[in-house]
Amino acid sequence: MTPEPQHLTGPDDRIPAPPPGCPAHGAHGVGPGGLHRLHEAPDLGDLYEQLRDRHGPVAPVLLHDDVPMWVVLGHTENLHMVRTPSQFTRDSRIWTPLKEGMVKPDHPLMPHIAWQPICSHAEGDEHKRLRGAVTAAMATIDHRGLRRHIGRATQRLVNRFCGTGRADLVDQFAEHLPMAVMCEVLGMPEEYGDRLVQAARDMLKGTETAIASNDYIMGCLSGLAARRRARPEDDFTSHLIADPAGLNDEEVGQHLRLVLIAAYEATANLLANTIRRVLTDPGFRAQLNGGQMTVPEAVEQSLWDEPPFSTIFAYFAKQETELGGQRIRRGDGLLLGIAPGNVDPRVRPDLAADMQGNRSHLAFSGGPHECPGQDIGRAIADVGVDKLLMRLPDIRLDCHEDELRWTESIASQHLVELPVRFTPRPQQDVMAQPSHTPMPVPQPRTAWEISTVPATPAPSPEPVPDEGTAGATVSAGPSRGRTAVAAEAPARPASAPAATAPAAPTARTAGTTGTGVGIGGGTGTGPGADPGGDFVPDRPLGAWQRFLRWWRGY
Ligand code: HEM
């Protein structure tokens, strides 16, 4: 779209300019030509519906500095755009307002606008080369092990707050779980921790320290890439480096960052949105508890109703064309309207009707750039929500629903806090399946022996089904299994013997697996112990230890 509003063409966009002195002219939220400024809208969802009524499925709007843009509101039109690379590209360098200097270097959207050597901005053969390396590295991920790891990371996070009876699930859960999982996937579990989560949060908020936070993250990722170039292992980063596409150091670093941040931000939003819905919508929760809806179906519904990215900035027209009745000029920019596309009345005449089993939402986009990490994002949300509810079945909101706050930008809507209460519960062994009748956290052993007769009676663990296969509720695939989230069970008193063991070093003792081999010191008090759940290896892992790590999922 060209900068001057009078250049807008099409049946519905001849908006009469307000007469001089008209109060609407320059009014908050409305710019030149009567076009709406998206960034000033008090309620973007509301504005999208007004625009749909007025302009149809593609509407002209303004961004910061009154930079013109189209927003694509129709489901079909969005799909057409992302699936037609001959007409639309993600390469911002052809965007007319950028070429004409209308977009200044300090434009707030510059982090999204500035072209980078990453697959998101590439097209054609270059896109195939970069994306091919990412998807080939993803294909090496063992999904059974991944789900097991997600389960254990969930257990560790819940162990941090389960004894208190209160938590903020955004700060203490939703923002941590994807980061813990992605650090494992990339091959840097040691780097996972509060500092990395804070750096990612800070960077995305664009605060004054955002550049330093970005540098910190890039420092972690370049260190990882250098280590793996020197000594490859069986992880995403090593496979990305070894791919025949031959990514250089800059490309490896930028794609590690893309994967880490895309996964962190989107999946944290998805987790928070799904849990909020469970806590605030009694019908939704009843369907889950009653077995009419599985957790993966609940997650899918959330992807329709509250997609983690509301819009994607942006696609650009490679030639003059027509979309949704509007004439689009070469070099025009178009926002991929995920949130408005998902509520297009032509595909969802009744927004209250559930969309169970229907995955045709736009949350992961489509076409050549369709999110390649969607199975990982879904798995984190499915397993994380399922196991959280399993551990804390009486979890409830700890404020009035109206008090919940969001930070909203054109790109996404992010829940600020999700305070909850629940009956305080003891910690659980991260190696075990979550339960609301938990097994005690194993006590650290003080001495090791090689014997078939234990010196002290070991806790008798319940038989634990394999996490990779158990429970239809945690399947990310198109499974139609309908195992309900467990109904509430009476909580065990917080002072129950043994089960209330403090955050004793746990996971890395042989007693929990029956292997008879301790990892990282055995007594649980050495550097390999896992008091807060963050694993710090004390020496390079040998083949047996790597096997065990794969088997355990972390
Ligand atoms: C619920 C979680 C997620 C959502 C909603 C989501 C959504 C998206 C969307 C909308 C895009 C843009 C597509 C376009 O340009 O048209 C995208 C791209 C991408 N996502 Fe995701 N994503 C999620 C999780 C992940 C995860 C877990 C990973 C990695 C493990 C990932 C990696 C990527 C990459 C590499 C791209 C760029 C693909 C390309 O341009 O070819 N995403 N994602």
SSE topology sketch:
Elements lengths: L43 H12 L2 E6 L3 E6 L2 H8 L5 E2 L6 H4 L10 H4 L10 H16 L3 H19 L4 E3 L1 H5 L2 H10 L7 H12 L4 H21 L5 H7 L6 H32 L1 H9 L4 H11 L5 E7 L3 E3 L2 E3 L4 E5 H5 L31 H18 L4 E2 L8 E3 L4 E3 L3 E3 L121 H10 L2
Parallel strand pairs: 2-8
Antiparallel strand pairs: 1-2, 3-5, 4-12, 5-8, 6-7, 9-12, 10-11
The structure holds protoporphyrin IX containing FE.
Provide a concise account of the structure shown.
With 554 residues, this protein is an alpha+beta fold.
Structure description:
- The protein is an alpha+beta fold and 554 residues long.
- 37% of the residues lie in helices and 8% in strands.
- It contains 17 helices and 12 strands.
- Strands 1-2-8-5-3 form a 5-stranded mixed beta sheet. A 3-stranded antiparallel beta sheet has the order 4-12-9.
- α8 packs antiparallel against α12 (249-280) and α12 runs parallel beside α16.
- The radius of gyration is 25 Å and the shape is globular.
- The chain starts with 43 loop residues before the first helix and ends with a helix.
- Residues 1-25, 447-539 and 550-554 have low confidence and may be disordered.
- Bound molecules: protoporphyrin IX containing FE.
- The site of protoporphyrin IX containing FE has 27 residues, from α5, α12 and α16.
- Protoporphyrin IX containing FE binds next to α5, α12 and α16.
- Belongs to the cytochrome P450 family.
